[in-house]
Amino acid sequence: MSKHLQNITKPLLKWFHDNKRDLPWRKDQTPYHVWISEIMLQQTRIEAVKSHYIDFIHELPDIKSLSLVPEDQLLKLWEGLGYYSRARNLKKSAEMIMQEYNGEFPSSYEQLRKLPGIGEYTAGAIASICFHEKVTAIDGNVLRIIARVTGSKKNVLLPEMKRDVDKMLTLILPDEPGIFNEALMELGETICLPNGTPKCTICPLQEECIAYRDHLTSEIPVRIKKVKRRKEERTVLLLLTPDNKIAIEKRPEKGLLSGMYQFPNFDGFGSDETIKTWLQQYGLNVTGISFLKDSKHVFTHIDWYMKGYLVTISEVCDHFLWVSQEELFNQYALPTAFQTFLKLMLKE
Ligand code: SF4
User: How many angstroms separate the Cα of 342 from the Cα of each of 26, 325, 346?
Assistant: First the structure.
C-alpha cells in the first residue's frame, strides 16, 4: 500500500471534526435518515437534496409510511431529483424491510446489499455510519481523492481501480469507520473537487498528496468512458384550452421516466403542419401554434433535443388528461425535462 495513504487518517478526522457542514440528515444517524439522504444524494446536487429531504421525511417519517405510500405521491415527492427508479426502489426496499425484517432496518452490509437500489457504496455508508461495521463506502469522490493522494493514473471508472482502493482503505479504517467514510465524502464534496479545481492550499491531506506535489491535479483522476450516448429529437406540445386547461399524459410503466406525467410529444422535429396532423388523430382542432424554445435534457445514456410549442385548441379530447396549472403543480410529477417549457409558458 502507498505509504502516503497510511498517514491520512489522523489529519482527515481532525479536519472533519472541525469543518463538517451542518446538513439536515446529520442531525441524527438513524438508518432510515441516512438511507434516504444517501439515495437522494446519488447523482444529485446537495443543495437540491436539502429541501427535498426535509419534505420527504416530513411526509414519510418512517419505513412503514414509505412502504404504504401511493406511487403518484412518491413520485411527486421525488419531482426534480431525477432518476426516478431510485424512489421506486426505496418503496420496494421499505416493503421488504416490513415483510422480512419486521420493520427493523437490516444492520449488516451483506443484508443491506440485498435491498433493491442499495449498491456497494450505499450499503457501506449505512453499515459504517449507523452500525459501525468496518467497511468502506467508495463513490466517485473517494476514488478521486485516493487517485490523487497516491498519484495513480489508472482509469477510475474501471472495477479494478475500485477493488484496489477498497483493499487499501480497508487496511486503514479506524475504529469509527463511519466517521472516516463521511470525512472522505465531505473532503471530496468541499475540498478535493473534480475538474482540476481542488482547494489544495486548505486541504488536510496536502502533505501526503502526490498529485499536489507533482502538479498533477488536473490530470488525475483519469476517467475514460466507454458508453456511447444516444441522441433523440422530440417535439413537445403544450396544449391549452380556452379555459386554460393543459394536456398531460402518463408515461409507460416501464423504461425512462416510467409512470411520470409528460406533455404530449412525438419523435423528431415537426413543422406546424406535422403538429396539426398529429393532433388530428386525437380529434383535436388547432386554433394557434407558437414556438416556445429549444431545450436539451441529459439522461444517463440519452440526450433529448426538444422543440417546445404552445398550441391552442378549441375543445378537449379523451386521449389526454386535462388539468389546471394548480393541479399540475400540486398533484402530478412532471420530470424536469418538461418543466422547462411550463415555466416559459407561465411567463407568457
Ligand atoms: S491536496 Fe489537493 S489534490 Fe490532494 S487530496 Fe487535497 S485537495 Fe485533493
Answer: 35, 9, 6
d(CA 193, CA 203): 11
Cell digits for 148? 490523487
Distance CA 287, CA 315 (A): 10
Cα–Cα distance measured from residue 332 to residue 319, given in angstroms and rounded to the nearest whole number: 17
Within a domain: 220: no
- Is 110 among the domain residues? yes
Spatial distance between the Cα atoms of 113 and 94, rounded to a whole number of angstroms: 14
Q: Which atom of ligand 1 is nearest to the CA of 217?
A: 3
- Does residue 182 carry a catalytic annotation? no
Cell of 86: 431510485
On whether the CB atoms of residues 61 and 30 are closer than 8 A, the answer is no
Do 164 and 22 belong together in one domain? Answer: yes
Number of domains in the chain: 2
Q: Which among 251, 253, 267 is positioned nearest to 334, based on CA atoms?
A: 251
Query: For residue 203, what is its C-alpha cell?
Result: 486541504
pTM, two decimals, is: 0.72
User: Does 190 sit in the ligand 1 pocket, CB within 6 Å?
Assistant: no
- Structure confidence at residue 221 (pLDDT): 95
Residue 267's domain comprises: 230-347
Report the candidate in 12, 35, 16, 17 with the shortest Cα–Cα distance to residue 25. Answer: 35
The residue type found at 277 is T
**Any atom of ligand 1 within 6 Å of the Cβ of 145:** yes
Atom index in ligand 1 nearest the CA of residue 187 equals 7
What does the pLDDT look like over 4-51, one tens digit per residue?
788 899 999 999 999 999 998 888 889 999 999 999 998 788 888 998
Q: How far away, in angstroms, is 217 Cα from ligand 1 center?
A: 7
For the chain, list the strands marked E by DSSP: 230-240, 246-250, 261-262, 265-267, 286-298, 302-313, 321-323
